[in-house]
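input
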Amino acid sequence: MLSVRRLSIAFLVALAACDSGRLGAPLGSSNGTAGTTGTTAATSLVGTWRRIIYFLADDGSASSSETTWRFNANGTASRLSVTRNYTAGLADAQSVDARYEALTSTVRITYLAPSSGTFEYSYRVSRDTLYLASQAYARVAP
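output
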């Protein structure tokens, strides 16, 4: 059992090392646009962005939480959330469709049925990193 825990720790350390510094301090960042709504902001958001957080519990079990946002040029968006338990070999996924509007330094996201609600999050794009509500997402596709 101890070797599984060591293997899990080594796996998580190796994954953290693969970050290439993308989650560090932002360089060359841009916030929204100068206007109230904007094509520049929308253009910088367009693409697929992913954030993965890895966990190692006291009992040695390894799991992760993965969130992928897809912002389309036509103002539609989707969010895919995947939770994995590597130790038990289990995964759960939830997908939500939305519409979005990029404002000066925030993005307004309205979730579509069967989900509901409108939320406004701060955002900025720095190279290949989207900071959405201060959480870093790496660009995985244009």
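quick obs: The domain at 2-141 is CATH 2.40.128.360 (Lipocalin).
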